[in-house]
Amino acid sequence: MTAPASKISREIILGVGGGISAYKACDLLRRLQDAGFLVSVIPTRASLNFVGKATWEALSGRPVQDDLWNNVHEVPHIVLAKKADAIVIAPATADLIARIASGRADDFLTNVILASTAPLIVVPAMHTEMWLNASTVANVATLRGRGITVLDPSVGKLTSGDVGIGRFPESAQIVREVEEKLHHKSDLRNRKVLISAGGTREAIDPVRYIGNLSSGKQGIALAINAASRGASVSLVIANSQDTEIEGVEVVHVTTAQQMNLEMQNRFTGTDIVVMSAAVSDARPASPSSTKYAKGELTSISLVENPDIIGTLALKKVKEFVIGFAAQTGSDSIIRAQEKLRAKNLDLIYVNDVSGGDIFGKDDTEGTILDVEGKKTEFSRNSKMTLASQLFSIAIDKLGYANDNTN
To answer: What pLDDT does 404 receive?
Structure first.
């Protein structure tokens, strides 16, 4: 039985309460994005006195809704609630904590909170006396009793000039809390990942082409997983014009030569390259500018296409290069091992595509081979799961998990 596709927890709602610390949520938004999260901001009306709607839209790259009565026909509070993997309220004022604790739904943010089943992380920031007030203490206890995460505010200088508990925590602490809550990895932060995907097509005439059955699903899964782990990702995808992934540079191409150009242009400075595309080995030497009539097309003269992965791998300095090998027959592993060596790859994934298996499917099975001769069987599972495993292997070999730049 096929396992369900892996859940990539990338969607965060950042609810911003009406306290002076609202400006610090701007940095928190950036740090969440750096960790690979996609963030929608919901400011309370009061918070807009400190940070305006235009600022949140510019920083998040998304529209901001702050009024329950806008676009009512789209039921936006339900749409956002269902989409969210986690909701972070930062800063959470004493008033906002009280409203959440009492189950009120008197603005857009509290409606989304009540409609969501996602983990809720509350980040209080207020003056010391307000934090220690018996009402706030009781409200915080109520939230924690419901399983809601409420961070303790930091101790430090407050806006009044006083020093005490109530200060907005550091962004890094909040991001760590979100990552732990969602079991989210950001082990590719500050790294560049380049991925090819899809099947190239080579024109015979204006209506016919040489191509293959690759759908690009594996490359899309790779791009989503890398971006969710904090990487800067470029996806060069052939013949999948509808593909757009928020937070990922998606470059659309048709032919092997076009893919080669785009991959070459982006190769330098990349940390991990994954060549999951099915590239046509050859193309017509002289494609016709007009359609061949029936019976005219008796033979096609072919010329070899560029060896994209071989060329890239030979140029590598620090880049970790992963290849794919779609094979048929009993000698699939042997041929994949030969490709691994011949193309100067660090890792290769080989699968058997006999009978149309794998292409266009959401799941896959095959074998992962590395240059040390290690062979890892990948039993039938989602392509998203394979993407995660391949990057985990690459990260382990590159030592990123222990790299302080992450």
So the answer is: 45
Say whether both 298 and 323 belong to one domain.
yes
Q: What is the CATH number of the domain that holds 37?
A: 3.40.50.1950
Q: Is the pLDDT of residue 69 over 90?
A: no
Query: pLDDT digit string (tens) for 70-90?
Result: 888 888 899 999 999 999 999
| Within a domain: 3 | no
Claim to verify: residue 174 and residue 233 sit in the same structural domain: no
Q: Which two tokens stand for residue 36?
A: 């690979």
- Name the pTM for this structure: 0.83
> Mind telling me the catalytic residues?
212
How would you label 284-318 residue by residue, b for 16+ Cβ within 10 Å and e otherwise? beeeeeeeeeeeeeeebeeeebbbbbbebbeebee
Give the count of domains, the chain. 2
Three-class SS state of 153: coil
Q: Distance between CA 335 and CA 368 in Å, rounded?
A: 13
In this structure, the number of other CB atoms found within 10 A of the CB of residue 371 comes to 14
| Strand pairing class (163-167; 154-157) | antiparallel
Full residue range of the structural domain in which residue 150 is found: 11-182
Containing H/E element for 364? strand 363-370
pLDDT digits 0-9 by tens, 154-189: 998 888 788 999 999 999 999 999 999 998 889 999
| The domain boundary residue, chosen from 141, 159, 182 | 182
Q: CA nearest 283: which of 311, 254, 312?
A: 254
Give the burial string for 39-62 (b: 16+ CB within 10 Å, else e). Answer: bbbbbbebbbebbeeebbeebbee
**What span, in angstroms and rounded, lies between the C-alpha atoms of 260 and 306?**
7
